[in-house]
């Protein structure tokens, strides 16, 4: 099992394909998909280790996220289509901390339309690209820890870390927090710092990991 620090701008499947070619082994999988613009811990299982990937995926995961207030996009992050801009002058640090803290515990979350969740046998992003609206049922996820690390009112930004179960969409937390505050919000950066026993401190860069295969 390789603990790879996935770079931004690359899909999780891209990483698997690179490792598969380097190892000369077809059976390669990863645990816990990261969005293309996200970075951080991506455990990649090679050969017989691939059989444990589904169990590793059940581990708690920890993320560090930067969010930007005052914007609403179709993907809930800064890389999507801008739908609306709102004023952020009334934001306070205490209100931001209270809004984000409200997500701690067992919550119901609606997956973003631009996600790989399947409805009716098709992925949501396929419907979204076609402009088709479908009903998406909320799912239960568990937020074990939610810590606000930074608040910058001048930049209308905040940084928080979250420890959560599989299937939690950090983009959705950003969007919902923005709605609670009335300003809208989008995710502007995301790093997975841990996935179960695998941490960012122990992760290797993709190029370095291939040297040792």
Low-confidence stretches: none
Please state the CA-atom Rg, rounded to the nearest Å.
18 Å
Report the average pLDDT across residues.
90
> What is the general shape?
globular
Q: Determine the number of helices (DSSP H or I, runs of at least 4 residues).
A: 6
What's the assembly state of these chains?
single chain
Helix percent reads 10-25%
Number of beta-strand segments: 14
Tell me the structural class.
Answer: alpha+beta
* Main sheet attributes: strand count, strand direction, barrel closure: 10 strands, mixed
Description:
- It is a single chain.
- This protein has 213 residues and is α+β, with helices and mostly antiparallel strands.
- The chain contains 6 helices and 14 strands.
- The strands form 3 sheets. Strands 1, 2, 3, 4, 7, 10, 11, 12, 13 and 14 form a 10-stranded mixed β-sheet that branches. A two-stranded antiparallel sheet has the order 5-6.
- Helix 3 (93-101) crosses helix 5.
- It is globular.
Task: Summarize the SSE layout with pairings.
Blueprint: E1 2-6, H1 12-23, E2 28-30, E3 39-46, H2 53-56, E4 61-69, E5 71-73, E6 82-85, H3 93-101, E7 105-109, E8 118-119, E9 122-123, H4 124-130, E10 139-152, E11 157-164, H5 170-181, E12 185-195, E13 198-199, E14 204-205, H6 206-211
Parallel strand pairs: 1-14, 3-12
Antiparallel strand pairs: 1-3, 2-3, 4-11, 4-12, 5-6, 7-10, 8-9, 10-11, 12-13
């Amino acid at each position: 099992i390789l603990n790879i620090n996935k770079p931004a701008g690359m899909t999780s499947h891209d990483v698997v394909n690179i490792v598969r070619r380097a190892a000369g082994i077809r059976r390669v999988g990863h645990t816990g998909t990261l969005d293309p613009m996200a970075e951080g811990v991506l455990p990649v299982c090679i050969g017989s280790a691939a059989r444990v990937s589904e169990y590793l995926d059940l581990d708690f995961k920890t993320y560090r996220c930067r969010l930007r207030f005052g914007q609403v996009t179709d993907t809930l992050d800064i890389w999507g289509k801008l739908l609306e801009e709102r004023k952020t002058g009334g934001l306070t640090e205490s209100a931001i901390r209270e809004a984000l803290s409200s997500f701690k515990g067992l919550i119901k979350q609606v997956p973003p339309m631009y996600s790989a969740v399947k409805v009716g046998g098709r992925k949501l992003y396929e419907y979204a690209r076609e402009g088709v609206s479908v009903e998406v049922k909320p799912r239960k996820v568990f937020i074990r820890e939610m810590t606000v690390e930074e608040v910058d009112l001048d930049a209308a930004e905040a940084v928080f870390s979250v420890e959560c179960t599989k299937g939690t969409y950090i983009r959705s937390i950003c969007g919902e927090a923005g709605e609670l505050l009335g300003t809208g919000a989008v995710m502007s950066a995301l790093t997975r710092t841990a996935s179960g026993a695998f941490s960012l401190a122990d992760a290797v860069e993709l190029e370095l990991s291939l040297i040792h295969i």
